[in-house]
UniProtKB/TrEMBL annotation:
Natural source organism: Polaribacter glomeratus
Any one annotated GO CC term: cell outer membrane
Family per similarity comment: Belongs to the SusD family.
Pfam families: SusD-like_3 (PF14322), SusD_RagB (PF07980)
Protein name: RagB/SusD family nutrient uptake outer membrane protein
Signal peptide: none
Subcellular location(s) of the protein: Cell outer membrane
Length: 511
């Protein structure tokens, strides 16, 4: 269980959209005169953490589209909301409820971070004291903008509090390249000032900031190959300091998805902790509900909703010798006291499908205070140390192909994957060409981080085109004829934002 609780207070004006200012008071504090100590800076930072765990951001609206747009997850319940189904079939319009609610919440996170940064300037404490706290706000701001720029491309970039409607109405979009420049600057600040280790992994450390720098540079490799070397150098420094940063691969992959064990793990680099906040929209994570099996009698959750369910091709194409497969899937359910295989799921509920379901968020849920596991004790790792190893391997292959060092990073992750059942699969990597290594490491990322909201960003940053969707049976895992690479790598900016502020027009291509 978590030992560190956040006080959630919203300070001043929160930006609902980029052009529409409203107050959403959780605790009413005036910014003027409030910031007097480092404790006050932390209170403001905690407001940003709170927005990250809101149902409109990661709890459901922001996370579900990322999962559905990948080639590994589809809609299981055909009667679920149309706004969800549209993401699965790439038929999203600019009034889709998933984006019209997650977009403004993203800017509330940013507004809270900006308030903390601005307020810190009035705290009369030495920089080497207060910057360690303020650096959390820089990290959160960079983290949120990184999410936004990958989803939307050119977006408004705000680095200070917006305090009046006139100012909000003049906001315009910032070019993608400039957004990335600002993200890097924030992460460099965070890397400089954050401590090597934090008391809990829901607070970013120096390693968190540096690992995200590596991922940002890896993502920017699509624009300039020189960024791959930068990604490698940042990841390599984290790896070289894994002892100092108290990082390691969790020996048992299952423990990463066990609410009672993951808090002690050294693998998560930054997590979202829903137990740190109260009930309601700030205290519900929803992943167990969205991914759980309808009418499953296990885990005392009352089952799930069968909304986000892997395609059968994902299950069938994953080698049974890979321990991660057993951890990632539930291919049976408990129904009326009997264990039922997934092939017999039909008929157990009108909305259930005959496919294995995701187990990462349902098998060891911990505390569940709401029906269908809407509230659990699970920490959601936004990045794990395994990803740092694979970032280093992928980036090094782009600059120095054939490197035994790159092989070694992949093999560390593979060794854990075969340790759970004593098999020889997956075997160590060696002797691959640059092209084959590139393909291999993306495949390894697919399995290592299955259903962890990473695959979609790999598809977009590597511009995989139609292959994941329309080459069914030849590497593709989903048939999605509506997928259009000229349009669907980005989401549309919400139409209501464009109506309120024409400066944000035009919308992304194809919308």
């Amino acid at each position: 269980m978590k030992t560190y609780k956040y006080l959630f207070l919203l300070i001043g004006l929160s930006i609902i959209g980029c052009s529409n200012l409203e107050e959403e008071p959780v605790g009413l504090l005036a910014p003027e005169g409030f910031f007097k100590s480092t404790k006050d800076i932390q209170t403001a930072v905690n407001g940003a953490y709170g927005h990250l765990t809101h149902e409109n951001w990661w709890g459901r609206k922001g996370s579900l589209p990322i999962m559905l747009r990948s080639d590994m997850v589809a809609i299981g319940d055909p009667n679920t909301a149309q706004r969800r189904r549209d993401h699965d079939t790439f038929e999203v319009a600019d009034d889709n409820g998933m984006i019209t609610e997650s977009w403004p919440r993203s800017y509330q996170v940013i507004a809270a971070a900006n308030q903390a940064i601005a307020g810190a300037a009035s705290v009369n404490v030495a920089d080497d004291i207060k910057n360690k706290i303020t650096a959390q706000a820089y990290f959160i701001r960079a983290f949120t903008y990184f999410q936004l720029v990958r989803l939307y491309g050119d977006i408004p970039y705000l680095d200070k509090p917006v305090t009046n409607a006139e100012e909000a109405g003049s906001i315009s979009k910032t070019a993608t390249a400039d957004v990335y420049t600002n993200i890097i600057a924030d992460l460099v600040f965070a890397k400089t000032w954050l401590p090597d280790v934090q008391p809990v992994r829901s607070m970013p450390s120096k390693a968190s900031a540096q690992s995200y720098l590596a991922l940002v540079y890896l993502t920017m490799g699509q624009f300039d190959n020189a960024n791959f070397n930068k990604a490698y150098l940042e990841a390599k420094e984290v790896i070289q300091n894994e002892g100092k940063y108290q990082l390691a691969l969790e020996p048992d992959f299952q423990n990463l998805f066990n609410a009672d064990k993951v808090d002690a793990s050294k693998e998560p680099l930054f997590v979202l902790d829903y137990n740190a906040f109260g009930d309601g929209d700030y205290g519900r994570d929803f992943q167990p509900a969205l991914t759980g099996i309808r009418n499953d009698e296990r885990n005392s959750t009352g089952g799930g909703w069968s909304v986000a369910v892997p395609t059968l091709a994902v299950y069938n194409s994953w080698n049974n010798l890979d321990y991660r497969k057993a951890v990632s899937f539930d291919d049976t359910m408990l129904y009326r006291g009997a264990v039922v295989p997934y092939t017999d799921f039909l008929g157990k509920h009108p909305s259930i499908v005959a496919r294995p379901h995701i187990a990462k968020y349902t098998r060891h849920i911990g505390l569940s205070l709401d029906g269908n596991g809407r509230k659990s004790s699970i920490n959601y790792a936004m990045m794990r140390y395994a990803e740092v190893l694979l970032i280093a391997a992928e980036a090094l292959n782009e600059t120095s192909p054939g490197s035994s060092e790159a092989n070694g990073y992949v093999n560390r992750v593979r060794a854990r994957a075969r340790s759970g059942n004593g098999s020889s699969f997956p075997a160590d990597v060696s002797g691959l060409s640059q092209s084959d290594f590139r393909t291999m490491v993306l495949e390894d990322r697919k399995w290592e981080f299955a259903f962890e909201f990473i695959r979609w960003f790999d598809i977009t940053r590597r511009k995989m085109g139609d292959a994941p969707y329309n080459v069914f049976g030849a590497g593709g895992l989903e048939q999605r004829p509506n997928f259009n690479s000229a349009r669907d790598y980005l989401l549309p900016i919400p139409g209501d934002e464009l109506q309120r502020n024409p400066n944000l027009m035009p919308n992304n291509s194809g919308y």
